């Protein structure tokens, strides 16, 4: 039986070790590499060409959503499964829109992550039940209204703006120009019907794009 290679992307070494132990126990799966941020994830993917990437969405600097988008631009057949603490309909929808084939929360039964990895290998999408419930709840309440109109890149910029990053810092992190960041900043507020950056922060908190401290 072929061993399928997996790289794990998370900024916490202890969490990565937990991934490794779980995945190494599964017949047919092997850990090929690890990364702690979006840039390292992209470099690892290009160097190792794994069969599946297990990705957190909250990383230092650019988020996992940006990493997913970047990897999928390089290889549109890349199989990526999100495994995260964030029970957020917004993150889940944007992750899938960016190209993820699964979205599993860390509060789920660990077997669901394994199921999602093998599902991705079969070309299937697996979403944990708690996320499906959150998506349904947001659709009913209308909390996510407007967010679905943002592109993955605009969502990424919104996340970084909400963290208080400057246009110059965002531009450097995402390899775009400060002018592009500012143009998107204006477009995001226009799409969401917001007037101030404070409202952007509240919106990001309300939708789960920015975790509450």
Description of the molecule:
Helices cover 54% and strands 13% of the residues. It has 213 residues and is of the alpha/beta class. The chain has two domains: 4-139, Response regulator (Rossmann fold), CATH 3.40.50; 147-207, Winged helix-like DNA-binding domain superfamily/Winged helix DNA-binding domain (Arc Repressor Mutant, subunit A), CATH 1.10.10.10. A six-stranded parallel sheet has the order 2-1-3-4-5-6, sandwiched between helices. Helix 1 (13-24) links the parallel strand 1 and strand 2. Helix 2 (38-48) packs parallel to helix 3 (64-74), helix 4 (89-98) crosses helix 6 (129-141) and helix 7 (152-162) packs across helix 9. The radius of gyration is 17 Å and the shape is globular. It starts with a strand and ends in a 6-residue tail after the last helix. The mean pLDDT is 86.
List the helices and strands and how they pair.
Blueprint: E1 4-9, H1 13-24, E2 29-35, H2 38-48, E3 52-55, H3 64-74, E4 80-84, H4 89-98, E5 102-105, H5 110-121, E6 126-127, H6 129-141, H7 152-162, H8 167-174, H9 178-192, H10 197-207
Parallel strand pairs: 1-2, 1-3, 3-4, 4-5, 5-6
CATH superfamily of the largest domain: Response regulator
Which H/E pattern describes the elements? EHEHEHEHEHEHHHHH
Helix tally?
A: 10
Q: Uncertain runs with pLDDT below 50, 5 residues or more?
A: none
What descriptors fit this protein?
about 210 residues; Arc Repressor Mutant, subunit A; 6 strands; six-stranded parallel beta sheet; globular; alpha/beta; Rossmann fold; 2 domains
């Amino acid at each position: 039986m072929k061993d399928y290679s997996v790289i794990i992307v998370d900024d916490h070494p202890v969490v990565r070790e937990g991934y490794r132990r779980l995945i190494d126990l599964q017949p047919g799966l092997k850990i090929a590499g690890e990364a702690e941020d979006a840039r390292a994830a992209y470099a690892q993917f290009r160097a190792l060409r794994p069969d599946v990437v297990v990705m957190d969405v909250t990383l230092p600097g650019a988020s996992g959503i940006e990493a997913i988008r970047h990897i999928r631009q390089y290889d549109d057949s890349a199989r990526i499964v999100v495994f995260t603490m964030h029970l957020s309909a917004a993150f889940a929808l944007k992750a899938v829109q960016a190209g993820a084939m699964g979205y599993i929360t860390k509060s789920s039964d660990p077997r669901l992550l394994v199921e999602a990895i093998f599902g991705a290998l079969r070309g299937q999408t697996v979403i944990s039940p708690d996320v499906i419930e959150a998506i349904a709840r947001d659709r009913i309440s209308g909390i996510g209204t407007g967010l679905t109109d943002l592109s993955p890149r605009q969502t990424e910029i919104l996340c970084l703006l909400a963290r208080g990053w400057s246009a110059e810092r965002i531009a450097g992190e995402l390899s775009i120009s400060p002018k592009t960041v500012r143009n998107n900043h204006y477009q995001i507020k226009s799409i969401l019907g917001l007037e101030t950056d404070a409202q952007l922060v509240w919106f990001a908190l309300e939708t789960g794009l920015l975790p509450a401290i």
